[in-house]
Amino acid sequence: MRPIPALLLALVAPSAVSAQCLLCAKDASSPAASGRTAAIETPLHVDIETQLDMGRVAVGATGGTVELDPMSGARRLSGDLVDLGGFAVSGVVTVRGAPGAELRIVLPAAVELAGTGGRNAMVTGLVTDLPPAPRLGPDGRLRFRFGGRLQLAGLDDGDYRGRIPVTVEYQ
After folding, report:
1. Neighbours of 36 (CB within 10 A)
2. Over the chain, what is the mean pLDDT?
């Protein structure tokens, strides 16, 4: 195995932030008719506090996977990878909106990261520490962490970067 350094970093940015349709408020089945006008009138704001960073690894001939758990922050390597240190950091997102409102938060199934020399790597299995039905707190805020798996092909060294879209909507 010939280790080659690979600094792995994924940037996170909100792709879509939306609220329920204001034109639908007159419909008897709309959120406004059921007393959720605050959610309709309060826009959502998404702030990326911390970018997902998988740390530094050396990649051998057969490649491997770096997995980052959002709950514990633990990083696990599998395959032909060697840990070169650095800090692996879960992504952290804060959402602000109507206090107590239920949200729908979606992360993509996979994201391609671009590296040096035209190489690519994939982030898959994105997971969060969110409960099954996430809600904004009484202060109108929700903070959550996310992690995932970075898949590297053999001898693919470099600095990989990309954007992970975070979609947040009122439920």
Report:
1. 19
2. 81
155 pLDDT band, cuts 50/70/90, is confident
User: Do the domain assignments include residue 96?
Assistant: yes
Total domain count, the chain? 1
The tokens for 89 are: 């950091």
Average pLDDT for 44-61? 92
Segments forming the whole domain that contains residue 130: 5-18+46-170
pTM comes to 0.76
Task: Tell me how many degrees the CA angle 97-102-108 measures, rounded to the nearest 5.
Answer: 90
Residues 6+ apart with CB under 8 A from 115: 121, 156, 158, 159, 160, 161
12 within domain boundaries: yes
Instruction: Please check whether residue 33 lies inside any domain of the structure.
Output: no
Asked whether the predicted pLDDT for residue 91 surpasses 90, the reply is yes
Question: What is the rounded distance in angstroms from the CA atom of residue 161 to the CA atom of residue 75?
Answer: 18
**Residue matched to tokens 């470099």:** 158
